[in-house]
Each structure stands twice: as C-alpha cells, then as structure tokens.
Amino acid sequence: MSTVLDPPAVRRWARLSADTLGRARAEIDALNVFPVADGDTGTNLHMTMLSAAEAVESLPDDVDVAVVWQTLSYGALVGARGNSGVIVSQALRGLAEVLKNGESDLRGALVRGAELARGAVARPVEGTVLSVLEAVATAVRDLEGDLEEVARCAAAEARSALSRTPGQLEVLARSGVVDAGGAGLAIILDTLVSVLTGSGPRRYEVPAPTAPVVPMTEAGAGYEVMYLLDAPSLGNLRDELDGMGDSLVIVGGDGLWNVHVHCDDAGQAIEAGLRVGRPHRIRVTYLAERTHRGNAGRGVVAVAAGDGIAALFEEAGAVVVRREPGTSPPLPAMLAAIREAGSEVAVLPNDEGVRAVSIAAAEIAREDGVVVSVLPTKATVQGLAALAVHDPLRRFDDDVVAMTDAAGHTRYGHVTVADRQAMTSAGVCRPGDVLGLIDGDVVDLGPDLGELSMRLVQRMVAGGGELVTLVTGKDAPPSLAQAVADHLGPLVEVVVYEGGQGGYPLLIGVE
C-alpha cells in the first residue's frame, strides 16, 4: 500500500499501466471506430504508457519526486501515439504539474489533467476520452477523502462515464462499442488504485463490441500525420493545421511539442511545422491502408527457401515470405508480411543472413503501431520448433519467450555439396565433396552423401536428443531420410518432411 505518489509508486503505476494496456491492447483495438476505424487505439495507448514507464525506470533510485513526474510527462509526450495517446499524454502532464512538488492533491491533478487535455484538442467531441476525463474531474473536484479514496472514485467514475459514451457519440452506438480511448484511460486509473492499495495487478474487463464495427470508407481516409516539433512557440500552426484537416491535437510546451492531425495532404502538414520549427520523428500513415490491413490479432511471419518448407509454415498458420537459397527477401515483402500477420507479430528469419532485413522491417512496422519481435532462429528447423510451441492465447511476451526457448534448444545441421575448393575447419574440400555443418560450422566432409549424413546426425544426437527432424531438399535421393532414420534406430523419434529447398539435400534438427 502507498499513501503518497512518491517515486517508487509512480514507477510502479507507469509500468503496471503499460503492462495492463499491453494485455488489453487487442480488446481496445476492437473498439476503435472514432475518429477513424483504424483499430489501433489500444496499441497506441500501450506504446504511449510504455514510453513513459521506460523513461522513469531509467532514472536513478534516489531521484527527486519532481524529476520523476517531469520525466513521466516527457516520456509520454515523446512516445505518444495516435489521437488518444496524445490526449492521455497531456492528462499526465496535468498530473505532473500538480504532483511534482510531492503533494497528494490527486483531486487537483485530475482536474488539471482534464483541462489540459481538452485545451489541446482543436475541436473537442463528446463521447470520447475527453468526456471520460471531464466526468472524472467533476466527480473528484469537491470530494473529501484521502489519496486512495480519490483514486477509487476516479476509477469508478471513469467506468461509469465510459458506459455513457455510446449515448454521446452516434458512431459508437451504431457499432455497439464504448469509446476506445476512454477504455484505455479507465485501465490507467484502475491500475492507480492497485498501486495505492497494494492489491497488485488483476484482469481488467474491456467491454466487447455488441455490433459490427462501422467501416471507414477509403474516400475520406486521408493521412494521419504525427511529429515532434522543436519550436519556441507554435505561432499560427494550430490554425493552419485546423484548416487542413481534423482530429488535430497539439500538446507539449517549453520548446517541445507533439503534433497530431488527420489530413489529405501530409506534405503540407509537415511544411507547416517547418515554418515554425524543426519537425522530427515524423510518422505518416495512410489511414485506409491501416484500416484494411489484414489481421488485427497475433501472428507469425516465417521466411522459407523451399516449396515444402513454405507449405509447412503455412499449415501451421504463419505468413510466409519466400526467398531463394543464399539470398534475403526484399524489405517490402518482409514489411507487407508483418503488416498482414497482425498487431502482435513474431518473426522467424530462419537464417542468420535474413536477420538484418527482418529487423529493418520490424522497425518500420513498429512506427505504424505493430508490436514485433524478431526471434533468433538461424535455421529452418529452429523456426519449425518455435512455431510448434506458438500459442496465440498466451500473452505475447510469454509466447515469444516460449518460442525463443524452443528454438534455442534445437541444434541444427546442414548437409551440402561443395562447388569449389576451400579450406574448412574439417580440412580442405574440393568440388563435389559433401560437407556436414553443425550450428553453422563445418565439422565433417567426405565423398558419400548418405554416409556423411548418418555420421552427422549420429554426432548431433550423441550429446542427447529425443526428437530428430529431417527436412529433405529437392536434390536428396528418395532413400536418404529413411536410411538416416534406420541408422538412428528405434530409441530416437524421427520426423521427416519434404522441404524442396535447393542447395541443402538435408536439414537436421535435434531437440
């Protein structure tokens, strides 16, 4: 239990809010119909609070309370995503203004947060997170009670105000949803109660849609433009951007601003910022593309170098990116696959040489609000092992850990044929020699494909292993896999797949 919002309590609140929003992200995304039905409000709020949490966690333990609150506000400002994320960052700024001196005036802080948030929006609309903030401020303004009682009242009123949003905004009623931003704010206030009462994290229920979400038409889509702006003042920027589009929110101060607008001409919105200062961290998203982008849930992207391998990954539910042996897939193909896979995506490069393009594509996708983790799979068999334990019902972070662990416990081997003379760690090879590799290193060579394959697999299982996976290439003799399986005997389970990959007659995995 905490009787004050001191630095440790602020840190706990920021982290718990980020983690809880992360778990509820997909459910909040499903509520998102206003101002556009682009299905990313939960993701945006999660990223906003994650930025705030990481900022305060980077501070020393003995830092002053004023620095913690200012850092929380700054972290939310620079990491704010989307319309709701920017508004919530401004509400946090209001809390920081009041509470930075170590006072416990949560009432005044919530009132100030609501004032700043509404003032940041060019054309406020009722039935949104602004309405929920306003209702919370009204409920606590004259409340008599300690910090915990004020927090409980704020959280309860947020839930109550959230339930009223469909009656305030017609598009919510038509879609059978409450406001997505308000749902995220309710979670943030619920977690504050948990921190103050010491009750710990719990499952927060997000109201589910009761009707199909109203789609956004492509004709009115336009672009979402966001950037940070270094400028001593805004000048006429607010009026300029208000004339270009809608959903205008500008927050910040002291020379740093976060600008958000939906408009038809993204370049014009950026140029307006250039006239008053220096825009940076510029993000431009075509809203129709985001709205119509594939799956909004959990997905896996797997890179494959053969028809059979591609089919295996596809049958397991992965979005497959094809590549030729010895090459990396193009960046646009990787990015398109990540966007198709969902809002939380695990990427299986399955080759050390593919990792760089996978990371580059992941970075771009993250700018669009997709949560992406590139797993360290260096071979097809590691990718298969990771996908075998994939569970979309687990928390994303837990799923990534389980998949990474499965891949890491899979030793991988390759059998290939040399096309030139070279010095290897197993000796000098000549064209036509068969090479056996374990974990990327040449450990054996010889003239006979079958014999070397048997030796290599035997060597791999000598250190222990219960399951051997054999993936045959397009140049493998029909009897190769069966001969290796017979050589291992009945005490080892062997699974054989036809991969159809070129360059490697046999891929081997030992778990």
- The best one-word shape is elongated
The average pLDDT is 84
Distance between the first and last residues' Cα = 46 Å
Roughly what fraction of the amino acids lie in strands? 15-25%
Strand order of the largest sheet: 13-12-9-16-14-15
Uncertain stretches? 215-220, 290-295
Number of strands: 16
Structural class: alpha/beta
Q: What would you say this structure looks like, in words?
A:
- The protein is built from 19 helices and 16 strands.
- The two termini are 46 Å apart.
- The chain is 47% helix and 19% strand.
Q: What's a concise summary of this model?
A:
With 511 residues, the chain is an alpha/beta fold. The chain has helices at 7-29, 41-57, 65-79, 82-99, 106-120, 129-140, 147-164, 170-175, 180-197, 237-244, 266-274, 287-292, 307-315, 331-341, 355-367, 380-388, 396-408, 449-461, 480-488; strands at 223-230, 245-253, 256-263, 278-286, 298-304, 319-322, 344-348, 371-374, 411-417, 422-424, 427-429, 434-438, 441-446, 467-472, 493-498, 506-510.
Task: Present the secondary structure layout.
Layout (H helix, E strand, L loop, with lengths): L6 H23 L11 H17 L7 H15 L2 H18 L6 H15 L8 H12 L6 H18 L5 H6 L4 H18 L25 E8 L6 H8 E9 L2 E8 L2 H9 L3 E9 H6 L5 E7 L2 H9 L3 E4 L8 H11 L2 E5 L6 H13 L3 E4 L5 H9 L7 H13 L2 E7 L4 E3 L2 E3 L4 E5 L2 E6 L2 H13 L5 E6 L7 H9 L4 E6 L7 E5 L1
Parallel strand pairs: 5-6, 5-7, 7-8, 14-15
Antiparallel strand pairs: 1-3, 1-4, 2-3, 9-12, 9-16, 10-11, 12-13, 14-16
